[in-house]
Design brief:
single chain, alpha+beta, two-stranded antiparallel ribbon, two-stranded antiparallel sheet, about 15% strand
C-alpha cells in the first residue's frame, strides 16, 4: 500500500518516528556502511530545520572511525549528497538532511556551528528543489495548500549522471548530481 499523500503538511506522505538513542546506537555499529552510519547519527542529532551539528571530530568518533579517517568520512558524506539525502555543502560539522526525508517534531532549535551555514542555519533544504529562500517558506507553502505543486516540481527536476572511471585501479564510480535550479517559488 502506497503512503497517503497529504495536501497540506507533507506532500511526500506521512512521516515515521525514530528513537534518537536507537539511531545513535545504530550509528556506532561498525558493520554498517559508513554513509548509513553517518545518516543515522545525523538523524539522531538533527534540529527542526534538518541541520545536524557536530563538534570537530565528533562525527567520526560517534560512527566508530579512527583518527586518520578524514577521507572515509568525506566519502560517506559525499555519498549522502549524491543520493539526495544531504544538501550540497554538508560537512562533518553539519549535515543538512532533506526535509522530504527528515522532519523533527520536537522543538530542537539549536542551530549548527558550521561557519559556512550561518546564512541559512534556520532554513530547510529540499532535495531536487534547494534551500528555502526564507525561513519557514517551505512550510508556509504547504500550509497554503501547495503541497501537490511542490511534489510535482520535485518530480520534474532533472538529474544528471556522471560516470568516472579510473584506469589505474580499475574502479568505476557513478555519481548523480541533482540540478537545484528549480526554486520553491510554486
Amino acid at each position: 500500500m502506497a503512503a497517503k499523500v497529504g495536501t497540506k503538511r507533507f506532500p511526500e506522505g506521512y512521516f515515521s518516528m525514530q528513537g534518537d538513542a536507537e539511531l545513535s546506537e545504530l550509528a556506532a555499529n561498525t558493520s554498517a556502511p559508513v554513509a548509513v552510519r553517518i545518516l543515522w547519527a545525523a538523524m539522531a542529532r538533527g534540529n527542526v530545520w534538518g541541520h545536524a551539528g557536530f563538534m570537530p571530530g565528533e562525527l567520526a568518533r560517534l560512527i566508530g572511525l579512527g583518527s586518520n579517517s578524514r577521507k572515509t568520512l568525506n566519502k560517506g558524506i559525499n555519498d549522502l549528497i549524491s543520493w539526495g539525502v544531504a544538501a550540497p555543502g554538508s560537512t562533518s560539522r553539519c549535515l543538512i538532511l532533506s526535509a522530504v526525508l527528515y522532519r523533527r517534531a520536537d522543538r530542537n532549535l539549536q542551530q549548527c556551528d558550521e561557519p559556512s551555514h550561518k546564512e541559512y542555519a534556520d532554513r530547510m533544504w529540499v532535495s531536487r528543489i534547494g534551500m528555502e529562500p526564507a525561513p519557514g517558506y517551505y512550510q508556509a507553502q504547504l500550509d497554503a495548500g501547495k503541497g501537490p505543486r511542490i511534489a510535482e516540481v520535485r518530480r520534474r527536476v532533472t538529474e544528471e549522471s556522471e560516470t568516472v572511471t579510473t584506469t589505474v585501479t580499475t574502479t568505476t564510480r557513478t555519481r548523480t548530481q541533482v540540478d537545484e535550479s528549480a526554486v520553491l517559488a510554486v
